[in-house]
Write a structure and sequence with these properties.
single chain, mainly alpha, Growth Hormone, Chain: A, 2 domains, 21 helices, globular, membrane, transmembrane helix, MFS_trans_sf, transmembrane transporter activity, MFS transporter
Length: 444
């Protein structure tokens, strides 16, 4: 363990480190979609552009070994956070340009790779600076801190954008267009300031992190390890069934993720519910997230008592069948906020409940072998790829079909998930789920 980590309690850097990771990720992959929508972009482009920003997080296992080779993990955390802060500052400034969108997308693209690097390095500090007992002790704090990020981003920042737009700049919240730029510029200035402050804080309190065992020392060693990990991955028994499981389990969620919030804020005349950004922030960023966390915790208890193999199909039902709430909301278009909130909370609760099984399956059935960590990352990368690809096309499909027909399509998209769960192979003995898995299931 590093000398610094002995002097400074992990309480000083674990919560802030994981909060900063989540703030960056959620701002890039979730908040930007709402911003694009507010500024007048149609659903197709808004969902597509925001989904492209998931790519760097999907492929981060491919460049993670290079981060291991140079300097210290703390060095990469600090550099990434400073550059992320400056990048968001640049986004806010770029929004004042006449044709800002190409510059904006270039900045967001660079920020996504910086954010993924921050994740790699921050996880590295956590794993190598703390022994296994301390890691388990702080696992709950780690997960809680990460989940504050979505509350602040999808809840607080979206809420703040609506307040600024209507009460400070006195614009009509129901009209989407360039008038929203003023509010969102302030939001990005705030994200920039918070991220830079976190970088300076971590400069003082975060340990350096140690090199992991068998860390590659040259680029050729990295390429050998990566090629060997790919080779051994595809040598696994029934690997294509497990790949299909990893890619398709959350297929319907991928189609719902970006369109759900768009449906909430679109006018009633266009088939939406006509909510403001403020209400969207409260419903999704607060009640929705609480429902996910409650569902994931109860799902973990359910799995611990019943076991994964006899539960997997039920968990698939829990993830997919509650999507029907959005179909019902699109048919009846209720104005009662309690009904709308209940619909979102039901879908999110059961997503959290069933999602735990997905992560445990990857860890216990797909990952075991010579490169357990890398193969687990491949599995989560396949899931991320699914979320990116479905997000890219989801808005275009919704525009073609309309909301009600689109949510019928989402229900049909659950069929591949049921098939891969029914045929999912089990070749390894089940083990009790580690606390880290529950954190991943709640936040992934």
């Amino acid at each position: 363990m590093q000398e610094t980590s002995k002097k400074i309690s992990p309480l000083f850097w674990v919560p802030t480190g994981y909060f900063t990771m989540a703030l960056t990720y959620m701002t890039l992959t979730s908040v930007t979609a709402i911003m694009f929508k507010n500024m007048g972009m149609d659903n197709g482009k808004a969902a597509e552009y925001a989904s492209y920003l998931i790519l760097a997080y999907t492929i981060k296992p491919l460049f993670a070994p290079f981060v291991e080779m140079y300097k210290t993990k703390k060095f990469f955390v600090i550099c990434a956070q400073v550059l992320v802060g400056l990048g968001f500052f640049g986004v806010a400034l770029a929004m004042s340009l006449p044709n800002y969108m190409p510059v904006l997308m270039l900045l967001f693209w660079g920020l996504s790779f910086l954010g993924a690097t921050q994740d790699i390095a921050s996880d590295g500090v956590y794993v190598t600076s703390l022994d296994s007992k301390t890691q388990s002790l702080y696992c709950g704090i780690q997960g809680l801190s990460w989940n504050i990020g979505p509350i602040i981003a999808s809840g607080g920042l979206v809420y703040l954008s609506g307040k600024l737009h209507s009460e400070v700049f006195h614009h009509d919240p129901q009209v989407f267009g360039p008038e929203w730029v003023d509010a969102w510029r302030i939001v990005f200035f705030i994200v920039a300031a918070v991220t830079v402050l976190m970088a300076f804080w971590h400069m003082r309190v975060m340990p350096d992190g140690a090199k992991a065992e068998n860390t590659p020392t040259s680029a050729s060693a990295v390429w050998y390890i990566m090629s060997d990990s790919f080779k051994t991955f595809f040598q696994k028994r029934d690997v294509w069934l497990m790949i299909a499981f990893a890619f398709l389990f959350r297929l319907s969620i991928g189609f719902l993720e970006k369109i759900g919030p768009f449906f909430m804020v679109d006018p009633v005349a266009k088939g939406g519910l006509g909510l403001s950004n403020e209400l969207l922030g409260i419903i999704y960023g607060t009640y929705g997230l609480i429902a996910v966390l409650a569902g994931s915790l109860l799902g973990g208890v359910f799995l611990a008592r019943r076991g994964l193999q006899p539960s997997l199909f039920l968990l698939c039902c829990a993830v997919n069948l509650p999507n029907i709430t959005f179909l019902l909301l699109s048919i009846y278009q209720p104005s009662n906020l309690l009904v709308i909130t209940a619909g979102v909370a039901i879908e999110k609760f059961f997503f959290g409940f069933g999602g735990v099984g997905f992560m445990i399956y990857l860890m216990q059935q797909l990952a075991p072998g010579k490169y357990t960590t890398t193969h687990y990352a491949f599995g989560t990368g396949l899931m991320g790829l699914c979320m990116m690809l479905t997000g890219v096309i989801s808005g275009h499909l919704q525009q073609l079909l309309g909301y009600t027909s689109y949510f019928v399509f989402v229900m049909l998209a659950t069929i591949p998930s049921f098939l891969v769960c029914w045929f999912a192979p089990f070749h390894h003995k089940e083990e009790p789920a580690a606390p880290e898995v529950l954190v991943d299931a709640a936040t992934a």
